[in-house]
């Protein structure tokens, strides 16, 4: 008799999963960039968080409706395959394995090291920081490869811990800021004048990093009670809560230190904000929670990274599919895929350092690998949403037309925003992207598994 996944999760659990998966390092990492992009204009910054949140919510809802039809589908690769065919699914999986997961995982290793360096007074671009980043990268790989159960427990623990600094700063920072006038000062003072449209585009693209991850939550649909009703509710409610928490945290920071300090101080400014509100000791302790939150996000991304080529090989595509889909009998991990994933993380970490943290090593081919791969995901969503509008005749008008069109508009906005924000760096990225995908075409023929 075939064993099937049980319907064991309710609506509240599903909402908690969405919130836990998405909330992580992004809001800590990108709050400073949003503030700098908008010239210290808090109102414009909040608008950027709202626009990014609405794009996330519309895309999440559209995928949630699709998930209720394809109930055993999980992950963006499977959605692409179900909607557009297995070849499109393969190319999405190839992109995820070689660019998306390793670029974001390497950036998260550096972000975790960056905050650790601030805590101990090291340079955020020096050798100490990069050494710590490599250590975090290897440790996260080892945790996932050698003890997946322990890695899962670590992920659950950090989900709880990551909410502590956000809620404390959002609530206490706002109260203190209103009482001492700091919040009013920051809302009424613009540090520097900026071009509003360009500033908004740059800020929205920055929020994409903080909002990424909601697509993973759709993988629980086969285990969700009354999934047709609860999954759309969970994704909409969960993503709305995320947007609200991020905005409140952003406002809370404005109650702790001036915009000028946050814009020039970066991570040191965030640390000072926590210390101003909660004292030196309390602020440093909460800042440790920020680091743990970053490490939790790194752990989750590493989990995806180690399974990148496996997800492709398991479908019979990619180089040496029979090798990369092998599962270790002891750890129950795709060992070959994991090692390749770690190697890619190391390469992309080196690129991130040479392109963004020192004198540019790569000339024209320097771009921000923390943002452009995420924008690519939005571009890859577009054919899926168009296909829903064209083919899903059993959906009602709202689900077939209104939300997919809203999601499409959000994806197009994100692409346009990226072009305005990164300009020629987009061209450099697209050349690298085209090369990687061209290599992928060499392995686009489905392989027949050989019996041993």
Automatic annotation (TrEMBL):
One of its GO terms (molecular function) is L-amino acid transmembrane transporter activity. It comes from the Bacteria. Its main location: membrane. It is a multi-pass membrane protein. The chain crosses the membrane at residues 9-29, 41-67, 88-111, 117-138, 159-179, 199-220, 232-252, 272-298, 339-355, 361-389, 401-420, 426-444. InterPro entries: AA/rel_permease1, AminoAcid_Transporter. It is found in: Membrane. Keywords: Membrane, Transmembrane, Transmembrane helix. GO terms for cellular component: membrane. Pfam families: AA_permease_2. This is Amino acid/polyamine/organocation transporter, APC superfamily. It comes from Maledivibacter halophilus.
């Amino acid at each position: 008799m075939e064993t099937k996944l049980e319907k064991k999760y309710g609506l509240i659990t599903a909402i908690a999963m969405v919130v836990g998966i998405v909330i992580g390092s992004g809001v800590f990492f990108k709050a400073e960039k949003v503030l700098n992009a908008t010239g210290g204009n808090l109102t414009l910054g909040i608008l950027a968080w709202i626009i990014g949140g609405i794009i996330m919510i519309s895309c999440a809802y559209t995928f949630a409706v699709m998930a209720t039809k394809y109930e055993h589908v999980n992950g963006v690769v499977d959605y692409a395959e179900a909607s557009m065919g297995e070849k499109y699914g393969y190319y999405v999986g190839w992109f995820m394995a070689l660019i998306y997961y390793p670029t974001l995982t390497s950036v998260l290793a550096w972000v975790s090291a960056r905050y650790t360096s601030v805590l101990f007074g090291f340079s955020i671009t020096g050798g100490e920081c990069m050494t710590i980043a490599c250590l975090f990268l290897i440790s996260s790989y080892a945790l996932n490869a050698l003890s997946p159960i322990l890695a899962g427990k670590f992920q659950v623990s950090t989900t709880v811990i990551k909410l502590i600094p956000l809620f404390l700063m959002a609530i206490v920072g706002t109260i203190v800021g209103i009482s001492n006038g700091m919040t009013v000062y920051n809302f009424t003072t613009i540090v520097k004048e900026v071009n509003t449209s360009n500033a908004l585009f740059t800020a929205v693209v920055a929020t994409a990093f903080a909002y990424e991850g909601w697509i993973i939550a759709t993988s629980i649909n086969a285990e969700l009670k009354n999934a047709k009703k609860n999954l759309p509710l969970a994704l909409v409610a969960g993503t709305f809560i995320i947007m609200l928490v991020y905005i409140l945290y952003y406002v809370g920071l404005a109650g702790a230190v001036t915009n000028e300090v946050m814009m020039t101080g970066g991570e040191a400014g965030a640390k000072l904000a926590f210390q101003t509100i909660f004292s030196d000791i309390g602020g440093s302790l909460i800042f440790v929670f920020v680091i743990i939150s970053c490490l939790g996000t790194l752990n989750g991304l590493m989990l995806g990274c180690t399974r990148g080529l496996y997800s492709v090989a398991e479908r019979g595509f990619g180089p040496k599919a029979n090798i990369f889909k092998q599962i270790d009998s002891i750890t129950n991990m795709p060992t070959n895929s994991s090692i390749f994933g770690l190697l890619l993380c190391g390469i992309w970490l080196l690129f991130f350092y040479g392109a963004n943290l020192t004198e540019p090593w790569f000339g024209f081919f320097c771009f921000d690998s923390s943002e452009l791969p995420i924008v690519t995901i939005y571009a890859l969503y577009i054919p899926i949403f168009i296909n829903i509008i064209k083919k899903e005749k059993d959906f009602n008008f709202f689900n077939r037309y209104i939300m997919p069109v809203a999601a499409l508009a959000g994806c197009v906005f994100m692409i346009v925003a990226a072009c305005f924000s990164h300009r020629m760096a987009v061209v450099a990225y697209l050349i690298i992207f085209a090369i990687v995908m061209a290599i992928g075409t060499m392995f686009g023929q489905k392989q027949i598994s050989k019996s041993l």
